[in-house]
TrEMBL record:
The chain crosses the membrane at residues 204-228. The keyword Coiled coil applies. It comes from the Bacteria. This is DUF4349 domain-containing protein.
Amino acid sequence: MMPSQEVSRQNPSSQINTITKKIIKDGEMKIQVGDIKKAQEQINSILKNNKAYIQKEEFQNNDTEENIDLTIRVPHQNFDALVNSFSDGFGSVLAKNISSNDVTEEYTDVSIKLANKKIYLEKYRDMLKSAKTTKDILEIQENIRELEDEIDVSEGRLRFIDDRVNYSTLNLNLYKEKIRSSATSTIGFGSRFGDSVTEGWNSFVAFLLGIISLWPFFLLIPVVVFLWRKWRNRKKK
């Protein structure tokens, strides 16, 4: 609710300098490697050369594969070089997705509204000094509180956009498939036994389904037997 004293509207766009283009670049890559530990050593070297760092790391290891999920942040000017380093000879690239998002319009819009809110805030503070009635004081204080909250949100949004623009994000997945063989596998007997039971059951089910699929022929067997016996009895007579 606005107090009885009117706050004159001003256009703060003239007070905002020309904003350079704001481009957010992100990427996702999945790479199959032969040795996870060796790949990690290569990653450390690539990150250092491109002034990048690992924001998040997750490792998974099961009977069939090893996986490392990395969230990498890199200065935007080094993003392409980082992607090329992983694409060229690092491993077998299974998937790759690179995107660019122009957020200049949003950044400009938030900046203009933020400047406008700061102008209103100063005017409300001046009005508070000259307010006479308790009602006006409380109303102005409430508007000041709301504006301060909105300003905090807008400034947080601009900081978030600046961070995403200045540092690009690459989600990198390293994948290694384990070799499963009775001679070379390091997987335990229990896992191999379970696999054998599963394979045997699947074979039995496939065999059973194959027999069931022949049910029309089974229906003909009694007919064939009946006709054969009838023919044989006639021949004897």
